[in-house]
Amino acid sequence: MELAISLNLNEFLKQNLFFMNEIKILKNRSDIGAGTRGSDMGIDALEIAAINSGHDFFNRYAFVDIQTHNETVYNKVKNTTAKRIKFVVDQCERLKTATKETLEQKQFPLILSGDHSSALGSLAGIKSAYPEQTIGVIWIDAHADLHTPFSSPSGNVHGMPLAAALGHDNADQKINSVSPETIADWEQMKHMGTVSPILRPEHLIYFGVRDTEYQEDVIIDRCAIKNYPVHEVRHRSVEVCILEALSRLSEVDMIYITFDVDALDCDLISYGTGTPVSKGFDPKEVIAIIQGIRASGKLVALEVCEINPLLDHKGNRMAEAAFEVLDALF
């Protein structure tokens, strides 16, 4: 069987229920969910990468700048189990609204985010726009992002969006004593979508996850969440893995893809992200994964996040690599 991406992509896009005539860029510069500052400048780094390549990408499309709470990084952190969670909730609500409105305007949301905590807002926005539809998720990342305030060793909320979307507390792996106020904020995150939980575990597929904690592994094993690690994609081929992934998601109505740049090999590309991990993908592999999923005709939104130019030891290389992906796709 040939992979769908071998077909004429333009014909697929014409038939794609969720591929809109217009792309709208949602610029979400929030980095308050991360443990290291700087991903708020990731979007600017992407724009610089486009300019330096002589590309007018960011002049082609309508965009919206989403208000942030980045000034709260100056506040003393009192809640160590879910740092700045109240402001993360606000940020996710803002992105939820922007994503929902973009979809209702029959536009395709290209979401450019700082840290990955906001992915919950993206998913909630999709679910709010299509409450009767089933969402599938392709999570291209080095990390599982399945922690909760009860289980997180760091308390950084960018490690929690998927647990919130799945409605998991993982309380049986509890290592933290969580305040009632934090529990209330966490419940708000879990119920952010029109329907809760937003996502079912059988509709979540990882690509490239290779750095997890035991508490996350418990959820992955219990829920039988599929991960395609880098070595499997290379051994079995992108085409075979994509076909299998799409078969697993055959019952979903739409697919959201999120691409955390730490899925890329930090030794090959750069360390320009908050939590770099070795032995990752190269940009061409990420392009092939996203193109293969897009060819299903179900892609409803794409998110790119966690570029941190302050940590880049090769100039602006991580943003350049991420722009290679955007340039190839759009």
**Name given to the CATH homologous superfamily:** Ureohydrolase domain
Spatial extent as radius of gyration: 18 Å
Number of discrete domains = 1
Secondary structure tally: strands = 8
Helix % is 25-40%
What order do the SSEs take from the amino end to the carboxyl end, as H and E? HEHHEHEHEHHEHEHHEHEH
> What's the N-to-C terminus distance?
26 Å
- Class by SSE composition: alpha/beta
**What name does CATH use for the topology?**
Arginase, Chain A
Distinct helical segment count: 12
Q: Which architecture name does CATH use?
A: 3-Layer(aba) Sandwich
Low-confidence stretches: 1-20
For the biggest β-sheet, the strand order reads 2-1-3-8-7-4-5-6
* CATH class placement: Alpha Beta
In what range is the share of β-strand residues?
5-15%
Outline type:
globular
Query: What composes the largest sheet?
Result: 8 strands, parallel
> Average pLDDT, to the nearest integer?
93
